[in-house]
Write a structure and sequence with these properties.
Elements lengths: L6 H12 L4 E6 L2 E5 H11 L4 E6 L2 E9 L3 H10 L4 E6 L12 E7 L18 E8 L5 E9 L4 E7 L2 H11 L3 E5 L9 H8 L3 E5 L6 H12 L13 H18 L10 E2 L7 E2 L1 H6 L15 H5 L5 H12 L5 H16 L1 H11 L5 H9 L5 H12 L1 H8 L5 H19 L6 H15 L20 H28 L5 E5 L3 E7 L11 E5 L3 E5 L1 H34 L1 H27 L5 E3 L4 E6 L4 H4 L8 E5 L6 E5 L6 H16 L8 E5 L3 E6 L11 H15 L5 E5 L7 H17 L6 E5 L8 H4 L3 E11 L2 E10 L7 H7 L4 H15 L12 H17 L3 H10 L7 H19 L3
Parallel strand pairs: 1-5, 7-10, 9-12, 10-11, 13-23, 18-22, 21-25, 21-26, 23-24, 24-25
Antiparallel strand pairs: 1-2, 2-4, 3-4, 5-6, 7-8, 8-9, 14-15, 15-17, 16-17, 19-20, 19-22, 26-27
This protein binds adenosine-5'-diphosphate and magnesium ion.
Length: 900
């Protein structure tokens, strides 16, 4: 290595070598400095000045820095931009160090490894997810995923043999950072997944050995102090354990400490939850508004009126993971029903919850040593509400509200009989009392400069504080005495940071200064002196102050340790409060929005009487939302084909059915007068509104990919929403595709799948003739004076006209164009191909004729039959198949025969 570099830079390079993928924040005094490439990147990302210092290989070394006090904001920016930051501190006092100050990286902050709530969205989890694969006995590969939110301690694990399911799940978790073994990059099986995900989240690759099974398992056992993983349900899940173990390794690497606050690991099964894939989550605007990307106008924004950050996160996860188990759904619904009924205690409880802070994140922050006195105050206020909460909860009988109290009460009862520890609630309340006694409400953010501990808490501290207070009086006395002794009335005793305490005397009285005054500083109008007396006072005061700071820190640390000791109970309480918050919230929104308790049936019936769209009913102003009744089942009403002009409300109905299903399965009441729903395993949507042009794919291509996904993955327990299909291609192609897709879904695996199919192709309403489980519906509009009025009412049967031209008029298309369109339409409808069109261009004159022939042809389902016959590959059929086929064709012809 080059020898002309300074020892500090040599040390920098050695440390940087170990943190290649991080921006190294290198502590030098009051600054974090960045050098070389890091400096260039940081100066750009953080918009700070790039300078240089010294040289390496005769080239100036780029440098930039941020003050330590302002570092938080800069670090947050880096993380937000998907970077990792390694914090390197000075490990000894620079004044005492021999040679270069010893420095160490004390922590690595990455997008998925953030503890401090200040950096995080309080309403969302911040996950890092690891993936590992294990070859099965046959050709199959088990894939394990595990993810962790270090700020709350949430730690989960799951497995699947299906890479598509894993991909769906990763998108559902939407972690901020992904952890893969190095070898996955070149693995033919995993690399496409990595490529697809790397656009959306930060990626970290670890050496394969950190994913090694035996060590991974050992790490987990060590973390949880257990003998096996049985209790977490993952003893036999090798791939999942590998992923979870790698995560723990990475936590250790980045945090440089043990993470005691991880309470456990939850193993779950993907199939236990209703899956709404990423596209459908987007289309249904569950969490994000399609246009703005914000929360506004989403289902979550309508149903989230929780009072705590923990509740808000839990509700979002309930919405992400709607249940599939009827009993569990019923249990939540019953709890909500009770909370709805008991309005008064519900409202009081919600009021109490307002003063509960984010205990999950505070607990982690405290456990990891990043908390300050204000965090303790927040813990205190939260815990102080517990007795009131417990009291109010005693009015509820549903077990969901009771487990916590019952447990606490029994423990309390036991403790009275024999000297058992007090209940959680009591213990936590005592903890709050301790904080109350010790910590000042107005404590500063720093924990090393005093001002934290209340007077009366600790005798020695009080003495030290008294000394500095007395000191002030002593100074006033000294000033008076010196004035008297010297006869200089303008004499002052003052303090500044550079000189400490001094006596100041105006220049014009210099001759009266006593001999024992020692001159320290001469200024234009005054001179400053010290005396022995003042010096000894100063050292006493300053000593007292630094002793006070140290003592306050010590006392604070003791309390912090107490809190950490109680952290498991705090976390359990936090979990319970979050759940309570969610239940009360669901009751509250049910009351406010007039929702009803859905029934859960096992007959495959979907019946929504007078249902509404939960979001649109809140957004339309002026117009009243018109409720509609929908019935679907697996016999006659499995596929509903909904026609109606644009703007009639087709898309709205489709979405409201999907949203109602999701709400019911998350245990929420639903926007309807009455509802009975059967449990759905997946919801698929194919919605035409937005295209992905920005990603370089054509609208039609995206549409077909989404459709392919549905056709491959739907089961007979799914719910499929198809909102216009085939629009991106010619009418012929479009109708043919729509028809074939509808048929396929109707016949899916012999049973078909519940499908809502909105289309402007009227031809599709013919499907009812050949497919038994299809029903036609339309959304009624009324014609009035050549205009149309939207009635928003769903009615059985098909719409007879499309009213496109009237809607165009409503949209502000110029009158002349609308008029001309009407003429063209009239020509087509009359089949009057030779009719004289008003003299416009020849092109427009010929266009309607061609179309007219197509549409004419199309009005006959025979076309499809002909297409089918044309498509047969007779050379590949066995004689039996040919006979069967002929038989089917004949059946179809017979059905068509009814028509004429
Ligand atoms: N049931 C309803 N009651 C009141 N307004 C409705 C209703 N359904 C839809 N709307 C209004 O009509 C607009 C268009 O509905 P939409 O479902 O997009 O129509 P389509 O899909 O048939 O073109 C919605 O944005 C909403 O403002
Ligand atoms: Mg629509």
């Amino acid at each position: 290595m080059n020898s002309n570099i300074t020892p500090a830079i040599r040390q920098y390079l050695d440390i940087k070598e170990k943190y290649k993928d991080c921006i190294l924040f290198y502590r030098m005094g009051d600054f974090y400095e960045m050098f070389f490439e890091d400096a260039k990147i940081a100066s750009q990302l953080l918009e700070i000045t790039l300078t240089s210092r010294g040289k390496k290989d005769d080239t100036p070394i780029p440098l930039c820095g941020v003050p330590v006090r302002a570092a938080q904001g800069y670090i947050a920016r880096m993380i937000e931009l998907g970077r990792k930051v390694a914090i390197c501190e000075q490990m000894e006092d620079a004044a005492l160090a021999k040679g270069v100050v010893r420095r160490e990286v004390v922590r690595v902050i990455t997008p998925g490894m953030i503890v401090e709530n200040e950096f995080l969205d309080e309403k969302a989890n911040n996950y890092i997810l690891a993936l590992a694969a294990v070859a099965g006995r046959g050709a199959e590969i088990h894939i394990g995923i595990s993810y962790l939110d270090i700020s709350t301690g949430a730690f989960r694990l799951s497995e699947s043999d299906d890479i598509n399911a894993v991909s769906d799940e990763i998108l559902r978790v939407s972690p901020k950072e992904l952890l893969f073994p190095e070898s996955a990059k070149s693995d033919a099986f995993l690399s496409p997944l990595i490529a697809a995900l790397s656009e959306k989240m930060a990626m970290t690759f670890l050496e394969d050995r950190f994913f090694e099974y035996a060590q991974a398992r050992e790490r987990l056992l060590d973390q949880f102090k257990t003998l096996s993983l049985e209790g977490f349900g993952c003893e036999d899940r090798k791939a999942g354990v590998k992923a979870a173990g790698a995560l723990l390794f990475y936590v250790g690497e980045t945090q440089k400490q043990k993470i005691a606050h991880l309470g456990g690991l939850e193993t779950y099964i993907l199939g236990d939850y209703l899956l709404v894939d990423e596209t459908s989550t987007r289309n249904l605007e569950l969490f994000r508004n399609l246009r703005t990307g914000s929360r506004q106008g989403t289902l979550l924004s309508v149903i989230d009126k929780t009072m705590t950050a923990m509740g808000s996160r839990l509700l979002a996860s309930w919405l992400k993971y709607p249940l599939m188990n009827a009993d569990k759904i019923q249990e939540r619904l019953d709890a909500v029903a009770e909370a709805l009924k008991r309005a008064q205690p519900r409202k009081s409880l919600r009021e109490c919850l307002k003063s509960v802070s984010d205990l999950e994140r505070l607990g982690s922050k405290i456990a990891m040593g990043y908390a300050n006195a204000r965090d303790m105050i927040a813990v205190k206020r939260s815990l102080q509400t517990l007795p009131e909460i417990v009291f109010l909860l005693s009015e509820f009988h549903h077990p969901a509200f009771g487990c916590f109290i019952n447990r606490s009460l029994t423990l309390a009862a036991q403790s009275r009989e024999r000297e058992r520890p007090a209940s959680d609630v009591e213990q936590l309340y005592n903890l709050a009392e301790l904080i109350e006694k010790a910590i000042r409400e107005d404590a500063p953010l720093t924990i090393t400069e005093g001002g934290i501990i209340k007077t009366g808490y600790h005798a020695e501290l009080d003495e030290l504080i008294g000394m500095s207070k007395d000191g002030k009086g002593w100074l006033v006395r000294l000033e008076a005495e010196e004035k008297k002794a010297t006869g200089i009335n303008s004499l002052k005793v003052r303090y500044n940071k550079v000189f400490g305490y001094y006596i100041e005397i105006p220049r014009k009285r210099s001759e009266s200064v006593p001999a024992h005054y020692v001159r320290k500083q001469t200024m234009v109008n005054a001179e400053r002196f010290v005396t022995d007396e003042l010096k000894s006072f100063e050292s006493k005061i300053l000593n007292a102050e630094s002793r006070r700071f140290a003592l306050e820190y010590e006392l604070f640390d003791e309390i912090r340790k107490q809190v950490i000791q109680h952290n498991p109970a705090i976390q359990e309480t936090a979990k319970f409060l979050a759940e309570t918050d969610c239940m009360l919230n669901l009751a509250e929104i049910a009351e406010q929005n007039d929702y009803t308790k859905p029934e859960i049936n096992t007959e495959g019936i979907f019946f929504i009487e007078s249902g509404r769209h939960p979001v649109i009913e809140k957004m339309i102003s002026g117009e009243r939302f018109v409720p509609n009744t929908i019935r679907m089942d697996d016999t006659e009403n499995q596929m509903l084909i909904i026609t109606g002009p644009n703007m009639a409300g087709k898309s709205t109905i489709l979405r409201q059915v999907a949203l109602t299903a999701i709400m019911a399965q998350m245990g929420s009441f639903v926007p309807a007068r009455k509802a009975s729903v059967s449990i759905t395993d997946r919801i698929f949507t194919r919605v035409g509104a937005l295209d992905n042009l920005s990603q370089g794919q054509s609208t039609f291509m995206v549409e077909m990919q989404e459709t392919a996904n549905i056709l491959h993955n739907a089961s007979s327990k799914s719910l499929v929403i198809i909102d216009e299909i085939g629009r991106g291609t010619s009418t012929f192609d479009g109708i043919s595709i729509a028809w074939a897709v509808a048929e396929y879904l109707h016949d899916l695996k012999g049973n078909g799948v519940k499908t809502l199919f909105a289309t402007h192709y009227h031809e599709l309403t013919e499907l009812v003739r050949s497919k038994t489980r299809v029903k036609n519906y339309n959304i009624v509009v009324k014609e009035w004076n050549d205009k149309i009025i939207f009635l928003r009412k769903l009615a059985e049967g098909s719409a007879n006209r499309s009213y496109g031209i009237q809607v165009a008029g409503l949209a502000g298309i110029p009158g002349a164009v609308v008029q001309r369109a009407k003429e063209i339409l009239a020509n087509m409808e009359n089949g009057n191909q030779g009719a004289k069109a008003p003299s416009v261009s020849a092109e427009i004159q010929t266009f309607p004729k061609k179309k007219a022939i197509q549409l004419d042809l199309f009005s006959k389902s025979e076309y499809f039959l002909m297409e089918e016959i044309r498509g047969l590959d007779i050379s590949k059929m066995t004689p039996i198949e040919a006979i069967n086929c002929l038989n089917q064709l004949q059946e179809k012809v017979k059905k068509l025969g009814f028509r004429n």
